[in-house]
Amino acid sequence: GAGVSQSPSNKVTEKGKDVELRCDPISGHTALYWYRQSLGQGLEFLIYFQGNSAPDKSGLPSDRFSAERTGGSVSTLTIQRTQQEDSAVYLCASSQTLRNTEAFFGQGTRLTVV
Amino acid sequence: DAKTTQPNSMESNEEEPVHLPCNHSTISGTDYIHWYRQLPSQGPEYVIHGLTSNVNNRMASLAIAEDRKSSTLILHRATLRDAAVYYCILNRLQGAQKLVFGQGTRLTINP
Fold it and tell me: Which of B36, B91, B96 sits opposite A50 (nearest CB)?
C-alpha cells in the first residue's frame, strides 16, 4: 500500500511491561512524526524526525518514552514500564522533505495498559 | 509555537455551506495556515493550506484575512461524511515543520 502503515493496530499490555510500536512511513518521505491521542482528547505531539537531523524530542512525556528511526525509514516508539495513563491511540505521520507539504497519517495503534 | 483559536463545536445542515473560523493573531510572516480533519476512529487527514491568498481544492476553500490574523475553512456543500473534528494549525516555514494540533472544532452535520 502507498499509505503510512502502523503495527500493531491494537495492543493490550500489563502495567509495567515494555511495548514497541512500529511505523512504516510513505516511501521517500523524510519527515516522520509521532503523536498520542487519549480518549476524547486532541493530538499530543511526541517526537519529530527530519532526515539526518537530530530528532525533536520535546513532546516526549517522560524518559520511559523513546523513539528511533532506522535508515531514515521505519520508526519504532518504545514505552518502558507502561502505566495505565499511557493508554491512548498512538499516531504516526510522514511528509516529504519540502516544507509545507501535507502530512499523511496512519490509522494508529490503540494501546491499552491493564 | 504560534497559537490558534477555534470554536469547540459547530453544527450545520446537510447540503448547506459551512464556514469554520480560526483566529491566529500571533501569526508571523512565514507561517503557513494548514487545516486537517479527523473523522471518527481515523487518523487526521490533510484538507488544505495557504499563506496569503485564498486557496481552493476539491475538498474545500480557505479564505485568509488580509492581515492574516484569521482564516476560514469553507465547505461549500456539507455532507454527512464531513462530520469530523477540524484542526487549524500554523506551520512555520523556518525551522522544524512540527505540526502542533489544538483542540479543533467538532463539526456536526444534521441530515
Answer: B96
A55 touching chain B per CB within 8 A: no
Name which of B43, B45, B102 is nearest A108 (Cβ-Cβ): B43
Q: Label residue B57 left, alpha or beta by phi (over 0 means left) and psi (-120 to 50 means alpha).
A: beta
Of B38, B46, B96, the CB nearest to A103: B46
pLDDT-derived band at A98, boundaries 50, 70, 90: low
Closest Cα of chain A to B36: distance in Å? 9
Contacts of B104 in chain A (CB under 8 A): 42
The 8-class DSSP code of residue A90 comes to: E
Q: Please tell me the distance from the alpha carbon of residue B62 to that of residue B65, in angstroms, as a whole number.
A: 10
- How far apart CA B29 and CA B42 sit, in angstroms, is 33
Tens of pLDDT, residue by residue over A17-76, are 999 999 999 998 989 999 999 988 889 999 999 888 889 899 999 999 999 998 879 999
- Cis-peptide into A8, omega within 30 deg: yes
Question: Which residue, B46, B96, B99, B3, is CA-closest to A34?
Answer: B99
Residue of A nearest to B43 (CA): A107
Residues of chain B with pLDDT under 70: 1-2, 93-97
**What's the confidence (pLDDT) of residue B7?**
97
